[in-house]
Design brief:
The protein is α+β, with helices and mostly antiparallel strands and 383 residues long. The chain contains eleven helices and ten strands.
Length: 383
């Protein structure tokens, strides 16, 4: 029995059935076209929000229903069957909007949160810069306060939701002389249409083709000072505080992708015949599938323990880093074997395992690389 079974209520089951029907009708039939287009239409976000599927954890006064974190897990689980990685609603629901809810003042919450829940506001967070990678303290984007505004200059890259976004939380140096440097980083919300805010091209990636990932430039971008998130100089701390949930959400996406890849491959191995029998009957293949099933089960057990701890408010940064590292690496091991067992068909775009294979690779890179996760884990061990 699932460790989470006792936490599920009738409301969770109704939500699962509802979002499953939505994905079957409104997402799955259009995934191939979105992959070709390189973007998910904004109207999809609005429709999703109108159904109450975006940010359901928000209190009612901000457009949510006060749901728990299990709703996020259910959403990601059901989304996995669509084989669409481009509809980045978990990024909005579980990673970006919590910054607004946890660190913004009441006026800002009233201004932005209802739109985030309805899908009228699509969010992005702009941290990564050309040449900085995981070293957030090395950012060069500058925000100078002047006459009630911040004047932002700098470049960002690899920004998910970069084309569709209506509201971008930008990490910038408001005090370039701060020592240490990270104490000079602030988060500033930049709204679509702000003068000096320029979007670059929709980046051509190995996988996740329908997720719009863009470059951004800020050229004397003039933003009202009231768009500062929280306190000046606290941006780095805010980012660190939210990383636990971000890494759990990332691990959730890797886990359900591994489960889906295994499910597809078992089905294929049972139906594909070679030398007069299903390939699942060959000992090597059956043993390898058994190994993968074991890894997937271990990942699920670890993840569910983590979710329970997170819902109970425990600080589990080390475990979240372990899960993000191990499950992402496990996904890539599993999906590589799954492609192999599909043979030539595994290399064909018409087979969903091919998409899962190319989409999986980035899981060990974004939301903190595997190497950064290992660094965090090793430091927590006193090494």
């Amino acid at each position: 029995m699932s460790l989470l079974e006792k936490y599920y209520t009738q409301e969770h089951k109704i939500f699962r059935e509802s979002i499953r029907r939505y994905f079957e009708k409104e997402v799955t039939p259009y995934v191939d076209q979105w992959e070709k287009d390189g973007i998910v239409p904004k109207e999809v976000w609005r429709n999703f929000g109108r159904q109450g599927f975006l940010c359901p954890w928000l209190p009612e006064e901000y457009g949510g229903v006060g749901a728990d974190f299990l709703y996020s897990l259910i959403s990601i689980e059901e989304a996995s069957r669509t084989h669409c990685s481009g509809f980045a609603f978990p990024l909005q629901t579980d990673i970006i909007v919590p910054y607004i809810y946890n660190f913004c003042n009441e006026e800002q919450k009233q201004r932005w949160l209802p739109g985030c829940a309805s899908g009228d506001i699509i969010t992005a967070v702009a941290m990564t810069e050309p040449g900085t990678g995981s070293d957030l303290a090395a950012i060069r984007t500058i925000a100078v306060k002047e006459d009630g505004h911040y004047i932002i200059n700098g470049q960002k890259t690899f920004i998910s939701n970069g084309i569709n976004s209506d509201l971008v939380l930008v990490a910038a140096l408001t005090n370039p002389k701060a020592d240490p440097v990270y104490t000079g980083i602030s988060l500033i919300a930049v709204e679509d249409g702000t003068e000096g805010f320029e979007r670059g091209r929709n980046l051509d990636k190995i996988g996740m083709h329908s997720q719009d990932t863009a470059e951004m430039a800020f050229v004397d971008c003039r933003v009202p000072a009231e768009n500062l998130i929280g306190e000046e100089g606290s941006g780095f701390y805010y980012l660190m505080q939210e990383l636990q949930q971000e890494r759990i959400a990332s691990a959730m996406m890797s886990q359900v992708a591994a489960e889906e890849a295994l499910r597809l491959t078992i089905e294929y191995a049972r139906s594909r015949e070679a030398f007069g029998r299903p390939i699942s009957r060959f000992q090597y293949i059956s043993f390898e599938l058994a190994k993968m099933a074991t890894d997937v089960e271990l990942g699920r057990t670890f993840l569910e323990n983590l979710i329970i701890d997170h819902m109970e408010g425990k600080q589990i940064v080390k475990k979240a880093s372990m899960a993000k590292y191990w499950i992402a690496e496990m996904l890539n091991r599993v999906v590589g074997k799954c492609v192999q067992f599909h043979g030539g068909y595994g290399y064909m775009e018409e087979y969903p395992i091919a998409r899962l294979f190319r989409d999986a690779r980035v899981q060990t890179i974004y939301a903190g690389t595997s190497e950064i996760m290992l660094l965090i884990i090793s430091r927590s061990l006193g090494l």
